[in-house]
Specification:
This protein has one helix and 24 strands. The chain is an all-beta fold and 287 residues long. The strands form seven sheets. It has a four-stranded antiparallel sheet with strand order 1-2-3-4, with no helix packed on it. The radius of gyration is 19 Å and the shape is globular. About 2% of the residues have low confidence. InterPro entries: F-box-assoc_dom_typ3, F-box-assoc_interact_dom, SCF_F-box_component.
Length: 287
């Protein structure tokens, strides 16, 4: 049986990629247990690809986005400075309605590989960029893609050093708002959670949570992999990687952690977790 990685969730569907054959993608409806295969795209063969998946309500269409670094050759004459000053990527977009891949051309950003799965908020997909020269310094930023007008843009961060040059940062969607998980320097796996309360308004960024260090087993630090959602109780549902993946509930009032693996009988070898809302509205994609 093939193994799949989850690339995204939107409007009741999941986008999956075969773990062994990255050009083999499909859309899966867990509610109906049906799927449709996406035509293979070999343009980015042997390249490291960043993905995105979302629904365009204007055209009632699902889109899959594939982004790969545009080949820029490093040379001793120009050095790394010139190499990092030219961050561009090639973009391919698939539409369920047309059932074809289209070449979107080049966008002026490169994306971090740990940002492999685009985060969908307010009809836009979001990724963390690689280091690029901004205001005279090399730093990361948040890149967005609008599913309606096919435009790429940049989201301003809470502070200039939020996405530090050498520290991994992760994006997520919390209660419909874009959020950033920022590791705290020299504090193990502790991290801050910033939330953009009003989309497009930079001043609405707030530091909503600070989560301390969590150990899965003695002396094995848990590394935050993703922030999945806020539960009705106000607790955070987190995915950690350590001696195997683990789903963890964090109580921001009591500052306590609780692993769910044993009580939910979750296998230690699971690869990925994603917050997903199912429904019947996705049935039209399978007609």
């Amino acid at each position: 049986m093939p193994e799949f990685s989850i690339l995204g969730s939107s409007n009741g569907l999941l986008c999956l990629v075969n773990s062994l054959f990255p050009d083999s993608l499909c859309l899966y409806n867990p509610f109906r247990r049906g799927h449709i295969e996406i035509p293979k795209n070999s343009v980015f063969k042997d390249k490291s690809v960043v993905y995105g998946f979302g629904f365009n309500p204007i055209t009632n269409d699902y889109k899959v986005i594939m982004i790969a670094d545009h080949k820029v050759t490093y040379s001793r004459k120009t050095g790394f400075s010139s190499y990092y000053n030219r961050p561009v990527s090639d973009v391919q977009i698939y539409s369920v309605n047309s059932n074809v891949w289209l070449n979107r051309g080049i966008m002026p950003y490169c994306l971090e590989k740990w940002s492999k799965r685009g985060v969908l908020v307010s009809g836009r997909l979001h990724w963390v960029s690689r280091c690029m020269k901004l205001n005279g310094d090399y730093q990361r930023t948040i890149v967005s893609y609008n599913l309606v007008d096919d435009a790429f843009d940049v989201i301003l961060c809470p502070t200039p050093d939020t996405l530090r040059r050498w520290t991994p940062s992760y994006l997520s969607s919390l209660d419909g708002c874009l959020s950033v998980v920022v590791h705290i320097h020299n504090r193990g796996d502790a991290f801050h959670v910033w939330i953009l309360r009003e989309y497009g308004v930079c001043e609405s960024w707030v530091k909503a949570y600070t989560v301390g260090t969590y150990n899965l087993v003695p002396r094995v630090p848990g590394i935050i992999k993703s922030l999945l959602c806020v539960l009705r109780s106000g607790e955070l549902l987190l995915e950690y990687w350590g001696s195997g993946n683990s789903l963890v509930v964090y109580d921001p009032m009591k500052f306590t952690f609780k692993s769910l693996n044993e009580c939910l009988r979750i296998p230690e070898a699971f690869d990925d977790a994603l917050f997903h809302v199912g429904g019947l509205t996705a049935a039209a994609a399978f007609r």
